[in-house]
Design goal:
Radius of gyration of chain A: 26 Å
Helix content of chain A: 55-70%
Distance between the termini of chain B: 36 Å
Structural class of chain B: mainly alpha
Strand content of chain A: under 5%
Shape of chain A: elongated
Structural class of chain A: mainly alpha
Strand content of chain B: under 5%
Number of helices of chain A: 7
Oligomer: heterodimer
Order of helices and strands of chain B: HHHHHHHHH
Number of strands of chain A: 0
Chain lengths: 198, 260
Amino acid sequence: MEFFNNSVVPYFNYWIYVILMMIGLHAMITKNNLIKKLIGMTIFQTAIILLYVSIGVKSGATIPILAHHHDDHGEETESAHHGEPDHGHTEADAEAHAKAGAPSEVEKPDRPGDGEYEKEKKDDHHDHGDPHHDSHAVNPDHFANPLPHVLMLTAIVVGVSTLGVALAISQSIYRNFGSLEEDEILAKIKQGGSGADV
Amino acid sequence: MKWFGLIATVFTGILLLSAVPDFAKFGDPNSPANGGVGDTPSVSQYFITETYNDTKVPNLVTAVLADYRGYDTMFETVVIFAAGIAIFSILRSFSGPVIPSHPPTVDTSVHGDHQRIIIGMTCRLIIPIIQLFALYVVAHGHHSPGGGFQGGVILGASFILLALAKDLNAALGRFSEKRYLALGSIGVIIYAGFGLAAQALQRNFLDYEILHKIMPATDPIMARSHSMLGVEVGVAFTVTAIMFAIYANLSSKGRLEQGL
């Protein structure tokens, strides 16, 4: 129990990913069917991606997207949150955080077509001399680490490309040998020669 | 073989798990990756604090992906394109005996007709919305989670939906092989073009700041934001084309005549 509390619980994400990795590795080694091996490879890649993304987690931090403080026209759009009731977010949270000066947790997409609507709402809530938008420094502890997300975007894309090429090669193997089972393919190769078409 | 695999897997797992206590605890803001080592701040702290001042882009992930690590993303686009070309060269066959993979299973009874009407009508209604959403995701990569890769996959998926619901030929009628190969190439050329434009203005490759000279009415900081949008559009083009190319080639065994 002591071992569980000290070694597993604070590192539970690594335990999950190592187990997932080993499941994928086991599938790649022991399965006979080529497609099952590819699925094992995909599971392995997924475990690696999750591992890196989990390294960038900070407890109590939000997603690595800054709430929009100044749009291109130099107006405040912090109160853009007030003007978007159909998004289903808790507006009270956004207001509390915006007035507290911390970077807002809720992020809204910028819609230039709604500039008029936002301007009307803005005049009710903020005057221009708002103190906490001048000296605004971004606290790194409030945002999750963006770097692992970026690296894993590349990893996901490369994984998809590799899977596509692997499936194409599997189709080509099937066309040549008539089977996708590893032992049958090896037996046919040992018998000497494959089909002539590639 | 299976016992050996199991033993090897378990042994590797135990080895990896014995190294786990050396990692940072889950959610630790002072880990070497998040906070830096000793007095040296990590590079991600620079990204979080200075990205808005450098580029005026709120989405830190897109800013790092398309600007600070733009060279890496360009080659990622090239990897996708190369995968499409590889699948094309492995599978694509233009001649040879036409072996139907399965007899065409078009159900011509009344029940089948109704099914096709329902599916066809649903696709006709929803595919434009999917494509519009994909363009929204690409365009709003600066402010919300999104960007070129995500929007490109959604746009490619809309064509795959058309191919799945009706027939591969219906989708190829709208997105023929010439078109998608050309679109994939254009995407990579757009991305490299931004880099070469920066080089032509005597700065480093993919140095977006100097592009404010050829973009009307921008300062160097906004030039980085606009160039990021430009390269994301290039990425979206390539990803769209290659996603559909992979599906078309894999589902028709390279013949592009009859899909699944």
